[in-house]
Please model this.
Amino acid sequence: MTQSLFIDIQDVCIGMYIQLDIGWLRHPFPVSSFRIGSPEQIQALQSLGIRSIRCIPAKSDAEISPALLSLSIAEGDGTEQQPLRIPAPLLMQARSSGQSVPPRRSQPQEDGPLAVRTERAALQMCNQRFTVAADGYRKVLDEVVSAPEQALQTSQRLVGDYITELLDSSQTTIRLLSENVGERQGAHPINVTVLSLLLGKAHGLDAACLMDLGLAALLHDVGKLDIDPRCAENLPGLTDGQRQEYEKHVGASVAYAQRMGLSARVLTAIAQHHEAADGSGFPLHLLQEDLTVEGQILALTNCYDKLCNPVGLASAMTPHEALSVLFAQRRGGFTREFVELFVRVLGVYPPGSVVQLSDERYGMVVAVDSAQPLKPQVLLYQADVAQDDAQPVALAQLPGVVIKRSLRPSQLPREVLDYLLPRKRVCYFFERAVPLLVQQGEVS
Model:
């Protein structure tokens, strides 16, 4: 059995092999057990808000493990509540040794600037989280008919991880994911769940209400299992009979949720995910005073995702266009309060928007920080920088530069289009907000 000990988080150093005992949604690393290899990893660990960390001396670098082992022999393994503090002389020796230890050959080296590697790691982690979530949704679909109690547990674990992450972070970053991440069946419910929870948190919902909202968002379309697949989407060419078949998925979704033993608040939100404040929705044509907060949030985020990610990609709107439509053309269907709050959460130019800056440069919004939604992170077109080396820059780091306008991909010059590669399918995930490593002077 490999011996481990709890080390005070302030005493970690390069070369230590550590194991994180927190959920993967609460940390930014691709795996939970790894050798610390950089100061940036130490900073990330110390920003997690944990007091101690599990260290495995036998797997740590040879120059460091003797000091750790001697510490454990002298003082025991420590506990999570009372972690070991490394004496100053040993700590200085470990840190000086760790700084000079070359990375292990078993770990492939990444090329390129540190900021590029960091952004790639963050994007990879969010891609991974989204894929795991989509797989979890597919598991729910497999369980909901034959094992509704198991489907409930799977759903609660999935949504619970999101809520823990959101409530543990005062600020979050909404990140645009890679093209074709996850799979289409799970992309819509996961997108809607993520966006609903972000909007719900911004509205001030507590953990219990967020859980109900998240479960409703995750399960709002499970009733499509019971309807004709040809009627699963609200396409323009549907006959009256097909449209009636399509609308049945709302009641079927409520029935599945009821069999899972979900609360009345969840059932009501699912029932209202196609309703509208002005009575133009379905199936009951309810008015604003009849709608719950959770139902309104779910209806709004569901509509937004459908505008960005329709079945027919030719009719897809850019994220900025979708927000504009919600704000202007469909204002009667959603209350002004929630639409304006949604704009504050996503920014005027949500991730995935292709933009032109006031200095005439082109770019694509790739992330929005909750603290500065009007100053998103933008991937700029730079002809003298290889596409693989391109890195986002926060507009807050470019004094005087603002977004001048949003563009459709078809409006871009060909070389810019090939460089930025706007997404045909827009998927989002969130992470704890961390400052970009890119400095103003590094972006020409």
